[in-house]
Every structure is written in C-alpha cells, then in structure tokens.
Amino acid sequence: MNTISKLKFSSSILKKAKEFGADLVGIADVDELKESPSHTAAPKISPVEVGQREGDLEPGEAAWPEGGKSVIVTAISHPEDKPELDWWHGKHSPPGNQKLVTVIKELIKWINNNYEEVETHYIPYHVEKGGIFLKDAAVMAGLGCIGRNNLLVSPEYGPRVRLRAMIVDVELPPTGPITFDPCSDCEEYCLEKCPQNSFGSIIYDREEIGQERLPGRIGDYSRFKCNDQMEKNIETAEEKDEKVLYEPSGEMVQLLKYCRNCEFSCPIGKE
Ligand code: B12
C-alpha cells in the first residue's frame, strides 16, 4: 500500500469504527507498544489471579501476531448512569464488553471485505491468552493518558471507558499520543475513594522495575488490594443472589457488579 492509500485506509478505519459503535478510536504502532511501560514492567510484577491457567503465557510474555504492524484501539463509554454496561451476567461478560467485541468483529469483517490484501488479527482480552495491554495501546493511540487512578483517562469520558483492540499488518501513522494531563493539578479524589486503600503506599520502586512509569504512575497502585475488593464483590453478589433474565439465552443469571470507585470519583469527562 502506498502512502496515500495508507492515509485513506487509516481514515476509513477511524470512521468505520465509530459507525460500528465505538465512542473513541485510534491507531498505535505495534513495535512501540512492545516497549511500552506495561509490557516492560509486567515480567517483573508477579501476577494476581486473572484466570491464568496451565498452558497460558507467563506474565510479560506476549503472543504478538506475526507481521502485525498497527494496533487499532476502540473505546466505549461506560457512564455512571448506565452501570449495567459493566455488570457480569452469570458467566456472560458485561454488555459493554460484548458491544466492544461486536465493534471489533464488524471492523475486521469490513477490512476483510474491502482490503483483501490486509491481514487482520482479533486480539483476546486476557494478556495471558495473547492479549495486549490495552491502556498503553490507548495512550499511544491518543485516546487519553494514564491517570493517578492507574486507568486510561480520556478527555471526553474520563476513565469511564472500556477498551478493546485488533491488529493489522499495515504500518499506519499513529494517532497519538496527545498532550493531556488532568491529574497534575487534581485533588486526587480517586485515591481517597478506594475501599481497599490500594494507593496507600509505594510498592513498586523505579530502580527495581527499571523504569520511570509505574502502576498508579508513581508505583503506589496495589493490584493485590484492588483484586481483594473484586473478590469481595464476588462474595457480595453470591450473598445477594440478585438475578435477572439474560435475554439472548432466556436463562436467569446472577449479577456481578465490580467496584468502580476510582472511575466514578474522577471529575474528568462529567460535564
Ligand atoms: C489484569 C487486569 C486487572 C487486575 C490487575 C490490574 C492491574 N492494573 O495490574 C485487577 C483484577 C486487579 C483489575 C482491576 C481493575 N480493572 Co482491570 N484489567 C486487567 C487487564 C486484563 C490487564 C492489566 C494489567 O495486568 N496491567 C499490567 C500492569 C503491570 O500494569 P498497570 O498496573 O496497569 O501499570 C502500568 C500502567 O500504569 C503503565 N503506565 C504508567 N504511566 C504510564 C504512562 C504512559 C505514557 C503509558 C503508555 C503507560 C503508563 O505502566 C505501569 C507499569 O509500570 C486489563 C485489560 C488488558 N488486556 O489490558 C484490564 C483493564 C485495565 N481493567 C479495567 C478496569 C475498568 C478495572 C477496574 C476498574 C475493575 C472493573 N470494574 O472493571 C479495576 C481498576 C484497577 C485500576 N485502578 O487500575 C479496564 C480499564 C479501563 C480504563 N479506563 O483504563 C481494562 C483496560 C479492561 C477493559 N475492559 O477495558 N484489572
């Protein structure tokens, strides 16, 4: 593909992703992403339970698709007044995630139908199953920055977005990063609202991890404490046993609502 065709392809991708339902979309470079803070830190940070099973990749190991050159990152807004987008329905993933999967699948189908020469790669959610670190990809694609709450904070929706990505084998111009840092003069409401005090102390050292950019920016985000809260959310869901009809299959399913205090307390994107 020549430069002009690449530019046309890239702008069509950005347009189509929105037509298929993405609220935000951008493009990042695969080689740059491989060197991003999460990808370089992950092998040095022990895993928390994220469904890792025998046969899965080790922390920090990645299964980059051969020939993959550009990552297309999509985001869907998850506002506080639509909490159901983030609720697990029994074993079925949250509606917001299902919507993201549909957007990516539609985009892959559209590329395959219109650009036969382009190889597309569906990227799974879990890193240990071949996924990528989506927040880093989103920052590099210009969707926002990593906030003090350790989440991607977008100018439009704050941290209240969910992400998903795909890869193509064409080198496209990256759409980011952008200059945006709402946390530098913020009163850090997100840190106070964490029920587990997950940002209570520095646990990752710049020397030890060998880089400047750390979880929670300064190394004070504890994935273990955060994960404890999510375990509590599972217990609460079982105790409450709140059931709803899951329309696609017609079965009654239990709702599971994970903590989102670090998102809801963030003022960015609320006006
Ligand atoms: C495993 C996982 C978890 C684990 C561990 C989380 C962790 N951060 O370690 C647990 C179960 C605890 C968890 C909790 C939550 N998660 Co989670 N999780 C993931 C998953 C699958 C991988 C994340 C991971 O392991 N990161 C690796 C560790 C090493 O990195 P890290 O802690 O993020 O720290 C790095 C960054 O901060 C980065 N960084 C710092 N500064 C800078 C600057 C720049 C320029 C760049 C590029 C990077 C960068 O460097 C750090 C490493 O040194 C991703 C999906 C995915 N495939 O990416 C979702 C994901 C990150 N989770 C998400 C969410 C929403 C949550 C929760 C709010 C729970 C919920 N209701 O869903 C909490 C909030 C956690 C928080 N405040 O960070 C969203 C975040 C959306 C957003 N706006 O950013 C994601 C992207 C999934 C999605 N569906 O979109 N999660």
Would you give an account of this structure?
- With 271 residues, the protein is α+β, with helices and mostly antiparallel strands.
- The chain has one domain.
- The protein is built from 9 helices and 9 strands.
- The strands form 3 sheets. The protein has a 4-stranded antiparallel β-sheet, with helices on both faces.
- The chain is globular and about 55 Å long.
- The termini are far apart.
- Bound molecules: cobalamin (B12).
- Cobalamin (B12) binds at residues 36-38, 41-42, 45, 48, 50, 86, 125-127, 131, 133-136, 139-140, 146, 149-152, 159, 161-163, 213-215, 217, 221, 223, 226-227, 230, 258, 260, 262-263.
Give the topology, please:
Blueprint: H1 3-19, E1 24-29, H2 30-34, H3 37-41, E2 70-77, E3 88-89, H4 95-114, E4 120-122, H5 134-140, E5 145-146, E6 152-153, E7 161-168, H6 189-192, H7 206-209, H8 223-240, E8 243-246, E9 251-256, H9 261-264
Antiparallel strand pairs: 1-2, 2-7, 3-9, 4-7, 5-6, 8-9
The protein binds cobalamin.
Cobalamin is lined by residues 36-38, 41-42, 45, 48, 50, 86, 125-127, 131, 133-136, 139-140, 146, 149-152, 159, 161-163, 213-215, 217, 221, 223, 226-227, 230, 258, 260, 262-263.
* Count of helix runs: 9
Count of separate structural domains: 1
- Percent of residues in helices: 25-40%
Number of strands: 9
Bound molecules: cobalamin
Structural class: alpha+beta
* Stretches with pLDDT under 50, minimum 5 residues: none
Strand residue content: 15-25%
Taking the alpha carbons of the first and last residues, their distance comes to: 42 Å
> What is the gyration radius calculated from CA atoms?
19 Å
Strand arrangement within the widest β-sheet reads: 1-2-7-4
Apparent shape: globular
Mean pLDDT: 94
